[in-house]
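Attaching the record inline, Q. Sequence:
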Amino acid sequence: MNIEIKIDSSCIDPRIIIMTASVTEKVSNILKILSDETPQLLTGIKDEKAEILDRSEIIRIYADTGKTVGVTDKGIYIIRRRLYELEELLCGDFFVRISNSEIINLKKVNNFDMSFTGTICVKLSNGESVYVSRRYVSKIKKILGL
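Structure, as predicted:
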């Protein structure tokens, strides 16, 4: 994908032009992001109180017995969204899916232990260890440039 920015002092409102041979899924996602002007807040429930979660503090989000759980620097929250919705909401913010039931924040990873055959052990900043499922190993290696 080529990105070009032109600075024009006579341009009052920013204008975006997308040139493509066809509307692919990637182009559709870009259009969705650009047209969504209302900020999507992420709210978690802890001790029967709803709090707005700072994305930079989220360590991991996982599905557990029908609930979506968010682990942050401040504690554990119940999030009333499905994992696939959160994946879409957080895409491009250093969040990556590592299994069918878990998303992690790459900025909260201490290291990736590649010594396990067929999987990767991820050591998180809060001391937890989680595992990349075999289905997602190649995706993680690509992201890491391995």
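Residues 43-144 form a domain with the OB fold (Dihydrolipoamide Acetyltransferase, E2P) fold (CATH 2.40.50.1020). Residues 102 and 116 are 19 Å apart (CA to CA).

More tomorrow.
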